[in-house]
Task: structure prediction
Amino acid sequence: MATIRDVAKLADVSVSTVSLALSNPARVSQKTLEKIRHAVAAVGFVADPLAQSLARGRSRMIGFVVGNVGNPFFGDIRRELENYALDHSHFVLVTDSSGKTVRERAMVEHLIGLKTAGLALAPSGHDQDYLDFIGGLNVPIVCFDQKVAGIERDFVGSDNHLAGAMLTEHLLQLGHRRIAFITGPSHMHTATERYRGFTDTMANAGVEVNPNFVVDGQFTRTAGYEAAMRLLIQPERPTAILGANNTVALSALQAMQELGFRCPEDISLAMIDNVQWSSVITPRITMVVQDTLALGGIIARRLLHRITNPQGAVEPPQDFVLTPKFVPGNSCRRI
Amino acid sequence: MATIRDVAKLADVSVSTVSLALSNPARVSQKTLEKIRHAVAAVGFVADPLAQSLARGRSRMIGFVVGNVGNPFFGDIRRELENYALDHSHFVLVTDSSGKTVRERAMVEHLIGLKTAGLALAPSGHDQDYLDFIGGLNVPIVCFDQKVAGIERDFVGSDNHLAGAMLTEHLLQLGHRRIAFITGPSHMHTATERYRGFTDTMANAGVEVNPNFVVDGQFTRTAGYEAAMRLLIQPERPTAILGANNTVALSALQAMQELGFRCPEDISLAMIDNVQWSSVITPRITMVVQDTLALGGIIARRLLHRITNPQGAVEPPQDFVLTPKFVPGNSCRRI
DNA sequence: TGATTAAATCGAACCGGTTCGATCAAACTG
DNA sequence: CAGTTTGATCGAACCGGTTCGATTTAATCA
Result:
């Protein structure tokens, strides 16, 4: 591999001039610029990104940290960010914490060690120690999906309260009263907000929520399945189930199918967040989806704005909250 | 951030001794080792991975390059690799080429620039220039999924010919003769092998393949949908459709549903590779699945073996081919 | 006990860039 | 035309580690 010194020697200028010419051509005379360009081409010089990062104290890499890259929600956002970053000569490193807080922190630390230019982070951790850690980082960070109280950073997400409310209202309109709710982890903002949307709407409608109809699905497949089963074996069953996310809702659908309940004839089902191949799942689930493309776009632009305008570090963090969209399916029947 | 020089100063030894103590404690006396340990703890020293990589010419990162991290097939493998790597103090950088050859190459180049310790690569590119590029890299590489002629590297994958043959035989056993096949890109080994498995089995059974029943789905959703539509609008329709991968098969299912065909009553369907939530898709598709956990485990072990035994670079590349598994569903009916 | 060898430690060069103050010639000011 | 700017270039220090040959210290042997 050719180094900058090879170029300097061939162009008969100093190393510092080559470096300057490459990073700020305007400050070098036309003549030497030409010489250097030729030399670069002749030896096939490509700057070592590692050495650059070490010297500059910053790399051109962006860290992307989520709990599950396989989730199409995160996948769409990742793609948007990647495209935008690539167009601005940045490179996205994807890491997956599997939803584990310790691992998430380890990955963030790793990325920071790599002197990443910025971080797009869907936080799952919540203890004070972690918050302080994130807050103390001197790197542009855009948080998304989970709004965490205590993290003073840009945030991009959806109106989760509204998402829960929309589906609840829909079920109420169809005449449902015995509506069950499968929640997510109580430390997750999306989970609590969606649940609040549910309870608020029920209260507004003057319908009491049966405490047995609220079960914890942890946003995971196994917990969601178990929670759904608990709902389904009750003597007085709900007429509709509202899943706080795609995973728990589909786990519920599976449980229903296995027990021989038909959807929507026996029990209606609705969920928040889309899933791959939802169009071929029978019945098509009525859902509220987030505008992942828009979210990804905002995250990307905001993050790169912060990265390329370091002086604007004083710019106060801002929240971007998008309105989710209702997508009717045929999993909810009128009763 | 504390540097190694801070440690050296505090421990009253030279920088080189600190470095040695950290990388090879056995070669340092007990006494100084203690002093250094204390100093490290006192100043909170953590080695800068960038500086280490630059000096060593190698980092402790592993590059993972696939066409679609959202695909659960790759997701499972990624998880296995990640777990194993983490246990061996390596860190996985995930990159997604979106199936684009140019981007794939750019990502590999980027990872090489980062002096990654090794690469797990599901290659999609195929031009000679790219092959030479891969072949010329002086880094441990384990290829998987796609066996590419011309890449002399370890390879981990499944018996794709058998996968195609298994499903074809199953359909033949059920009495089907008018079997359609939705292929993948002809430059992909998995696609051609699965197709060969189909045609060979058909030939062995003495059943002629109707050329109109072989359509190209490109392994993508849009092309798969279009291909399926082409099959379904023919006056003489197939009685069964075999999708060369999950994407094209489910696209076919969607097309069937939209045109009002029932599966399996009107047309049977089978596919290669699982998909998330296949258990709630109606009907449950009969499929042949790869043992993703085993594949991931082999990839991980092989790659880390190569990384930690650099002297064994002479060890010739080896192929690991696993047998896929038949998973019956209810999407294929006897006729 | 002096010579030989092994173990522990050190100094300096190096990895491949960036950055900033110094230098010097050319251009501008009054 | 002396004095000051301005622009181009350079040298050296630096980022934060690693590595290897040299040197010092300790242990072994005759």
Remarks:
- Residues 13-17, 20, 27-29, 32, 51, 53-57 of chain B lie near DNA strand C (CB under 10 Å from a C1').
- Residues 292-308 of chain B form the longest helix (17 residues).
- Chain B touches chain A at residues 46, 48-51, 53-54, 59, 69-70, 72, 75, 78-79, 82, 86, 91-96, 98, 103, 110, 113-115, 250, 253-254, 257, 275-277, 279-282 (CB under 8 Å).
- Chain B has three domains: 4-47, 57-158+293-323, 160-289.
